[in-house]
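Researcher: Next entry in the queue.
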Amino acid sequence: MAKKFSELSAKMPPEALAQAGLKLQTMLAAMPLHELRRARGLSQKALADILQVQQPAIAKLERRTDMYISTLRSHIEAMGGQLDIVARFPDGSVNINNFADVDMQQA
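Model: Structure for this entry, 107 residues:
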């Protein structure tokens, strides 16, 4: 018989709970677009409706490994998020901001 997670986690030692929490944060910090969409509770059809495209366009976009930043930004914004581009170096990170207003510059 299946048990509720809350019952199982109540019996776990604090160290195991902390480790599980860290693993969850790691998994949430990096995921493919289709998993992000699902985690946000959106179907491909719902996202397509928001972006005013057909559902197959969403499926195709989620399989791509290379796309325009503006395409990725609109996809993320349609899910309610904001796209930030960060360059990470051994001595620190830098937010790249010259992509922020691409749509405004093209107008």
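Model: Helices lie at 5-10, 14-29, 33-39, 44-51, 55-63, 69-78, 102-106.
Researcher: Noted, moving on.
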